Amino acid sequence: MTMQDDFIEWQKETLKAIELWTIRLKNEALKQKTYSGAISFLKRSKPDLSGCFKGNTDELFRETIRNIFTDAEKLVREEALKREVEHE
Fold first, then answer.
1. In which region does residue 59 sit, left (phi positive, over 0), alpha (psi from -120 to 50) or beta (all else)?
2. pTM of the entire structure?
3. pLDDT in tens, 29-83
4. Does a structural domain hold residue 34?
5. What domain range is 32 assigned to?
6. Structure confidence at residue 86 as a pLDDT band (50, 70, 90)
7. What pLDDT was estimated at residue 14?
8. What is the number of structural domains in the chain?
C-alpha cells in the first residue's frame, strides 16, 4: 500500500468516525427529558472557538468537531419534527 493509499484510507475512516460520533452525540443528547433539553445539552457541550481564527489546520479541525455537534442538533430537530402533536 502506498502513502497515497494510506491517506485515502485514513480519510474514509475519518469520515466514517465523524458520522458515528454525530450519531453517538445525538443519542447521548436524547437521554435528556425533552428535545429542547437535548438541543441545549449539545449547545452546552460544543467546544468553544479560540479567540482568533486564522484558518490553520488545527483550527479547522476544531471547527469540524463543532460541526459534528451542529449536525447532531439537526438530527435531534429532525426527530422532534417527525413526532405527532400531542393533544390534551
1. alpha
2. 0.87
3. 999 999 999 999 999 999 987 778 788 898 899 999 999 999 999 999 999 999 9
4. yes
5. 24-81
6. confident
7. 96
8. 1
Of 76, 82, 86, 78, nearest in space to 30 by CA: 76
Q: And the C-alpha cell for 67?
A: 460541526
User: Could you tell me if residue 72 is inside a domain?
Assistant: yes
Domain membership of residue 19 (yes or no) is: no
Q: How far apart are CA 51 and CA 72, in angstroms?
A: 24
Concatenated DSSP letters of 9-73: HHHHHHHHHHHHHHHHHHHHHTTSSSHHHHHHHHHHHSPPPPSS----HHHHHHHHHHHHHHHHH
Residue 62 lies in a domain: yes
Which amino acid, one-letter code, is at 77? R
Cell digits of residue 12 = 474514509
